[in-house]
Amino acid sequence: MIRQQVLQRDGYCCVSCGMRLKSADADVHHLLPRSMGGTDEMSNLVSLCDGCHARHHPNLAGGLARRVMERWAVRLAKWLDREGVVTETTGNFGPALRLFGLDRFRHGQLPIILAALSGKSILVVSPTGSGKTLCFQLPAVLRRGVALVVSPLKALMAEQVSDLLAKKIPATFINSDLSREEKATRFHLLALRAVKLLYVAPERFFVRSYAERSQIKRSEPSFLVIDEAHCVDRWGEDFRPEYGRLREVREKLGAPPVLAFTATAGKEMQDRILTSLGIPDAKVFVRDVDRPNIAMLRRHCRSEQRAQEIASMLMLPLLKGQKAMIFVPTVKVGNELQASLSAVGLDVPFYHSKLGNAWERQELVKRFLGQSRPVVDQIICTNAFGMGLDVPNVRLVVHWQQSASVEDLLQEFGRAGRDGKPSVSVVFHDGTGRQDAGRLRYMAELTVASAPLDDARRAAMLTQRNHQIDQVAKMLRSPTCFRKSVRGYFGDGVTQQRLSLSERILQWVFGTSPPKARHTACCDSCDAELIKKYGAEAYLAWIVGGETPRRARR
Q1: DSSP code string of 183-220
Q2: Taking Cα atoms as reference points, which of 183, 169, 175 lies closest to residue 155?
Q3: Nearest to residue 108, comparing CAs of 261, 221, 229, 232?
Q4: What residues form DSSP beta bridges with 47?
Q5: DSSP characters for 441-472?
Q6: Hey, is 285 helix, strand or coil?
Q7: Helix or strand or coil: residue 106?
Q8: What is the CA angle 40-42-45, rounded to 5?
Q9: DSSP 8-state class, residue 118
């Protein structure tokens, strides 16, 4: 209020040089600094342009100069904008970044955020740890209204809301763990437009309480955010059918833009997600599927020999004190592997959904994270382990057999090397695919048989699951580069559309340059000669140690 009064008194002109000022560009300067007893009364305040303000504060000239650059870059980008991607809120990128404790956007974030703020629906496929969360939290803060965030797990909701509240950003979640009084308080805040992000599970839109449903509907959200959007395809039919009804939810909410994010969705799954959500014209961004620091090895090995191979890897000296994860398809396989490793002196715990009670499972997770004692460095687990966890120093990920889909494979080997250091993913397969794929087909049949669907939809789902199993088996048997196969499946190798001139100007001011891709090693196909000459274990040890055999020979 006082700021506007000062600007009006000075006629929206810099009192030093007479430059005309816009409200958004003007600075209000204290004649007598606060540190010397100056007050915020109008008599102690004058209007200045950025340049004159910087002259009065030589110690702050760098920060003030950056604000000038940001403002003029936004003006120029808006003047050159022909695609309609530069909106009024773009001028607030600088303060918004600083609100989140950041200096700049990571490479690739800016085009996503610009598309969201221009009102487009988007689907983003990008690995965990690449900054997807900011791509919906920042637009939610900048746009008027509340953003509804659909999240699959209560733990993820609580973690993100806690992080936002620590940054002084009003956010909350509503789930079944809350008392009736606490829910009422949070819905009252929603009605007052006092929160910017509201996290809910998809089931929340279909609760029996009409009052709850109507309160969410009346919120008129700025965005409908779908976090972990692969759940729309993977869970939408059988496990959590409410994911398959989010299109219906969006229509009842007034068809707000959809911002969907996932770490893993191939081109076929991307199409199914967009169709299910009713946004076929959404803009799709595929980023950083390739993890250059992870070497990807396929190992042809019979089932009965795999425990011995895994034991040999875990006993490598360079892996001592390093994190390793071994993914198994069933509890039975996990128990057998655990017993085999125990027989050779390796005490490796096994995490699965039937392990003890919730407290025991959580305690094992904390031990693997290093948050509880004794610390666990090596763990056997089913593929549900670690969802939403970020363990940076996993050096080795072993897949006891092929995954049920390329998406699952990416989720699993993507747990390795999140700190950017050299790591290895090893996938065992039987060569023909009969035994490994047969086990997965049997599990798929059990899942489909229990799904609440008619016969035609069950048949279609089973066909789709079998097709995904065949895709992985084909990749594992192929003699070509494994990395290229995975990238091609997700569309990461497709040439991305060039940034417009206005986007490049904003990228120069607010963004960062793309990191240089550095492959520690590639795969068993590209490095076949090295593996043949030195052996797989030596090759693995060299990678984890930070050098490939190629460098060692030099």
Answers
A1: HHHHHHHHHTT--SEEEE-GGGGG-S-HHHHHHHHTT-
A2: 175
A3: 261
A4: 28
A5: HHHHHHHHHTSS--HHHHHHHHHHHHHHHHHH
A6: strand
A7: coil
A8: 75
A9: T
Q: Is 255 left (phi over 0), alpha (psi -120 to 50) or beta?
A: left
Domains of the chain and CATH, by start? 2-79 (1.10.30), 86-286 (3.40.50.300), 294-478 (3.40.50.300)
Closest CA relative to residue 97, chosen from 513, 506, 497, 514? 506
- The tokens for 9 are 């008194």
Which amino acid makes up residue 88?
Answer: E
Please state the separation of Cα 303 from the chain's center in Å. Answer: 34
Q: In a 3-state reduction of DSSP, which class is residue 1?
A: coil
Which tokens go with 435? 């035994």
Tell me the average confidence (pLDDT) per consecutive run of 10 residues in the chain, 554 residues long: 85 86 76 79 85 67 64 84 85 88 90 94 85 93 93 83 91 89 91 92 85 86 92 72 90 94 89 93 88 90 92 86 91 94 94 81 86 91 70 90 90 84 91 81 86 82 90 92 90 69 89 72 89 82 69 42
Q: Tokens in use for 468?
A: 């995904």
Strand partners, 327: 381, 399
The tokens describing 254, both together, are 């007034």
Q: Say if CB 548 and CB 520 are below 8 A apart.
A: yes
CA-CA distance, 337 to 335, in Å (whole number)?
A: 5
What CA–CA distance (Å, rounded) separates 92 from 197? 18
Residue 364 has, within 13 A of its CA and on its CB side, a CA count of: 18
**How would you class 50 by CB atoms within 10 Å of its CB: exposed for 0-12, middle for 13-18, buried for 19 or more?**
buried
- The CA distance from 46 to 52, in Å, is 11
Burial of 343 (0-12, 13-18, 19+ CB in 10 A): exposed
- Of 430, 457, 459, 431, give the one whose Cα is nearest residue 445: 459
DSSP state of 128: T
Answer whether 255's CB lies under 8 Å from 471's CB. Answer: no
* Residue type present at position 489: Y
Tokens of 511: 């963004």
Please enumerate in sequence order all residues whose Cβ is within 8 A of that of 211, keeping only pairs 6 or more positions apart, or say none. Answer: none
* pTM more than 0.85: no
> Which is nearest to 26 in space by CA: 57, 3, 48?
48
* Rounded Cα–Cα distance for residues 484 and 391 (Å): 26
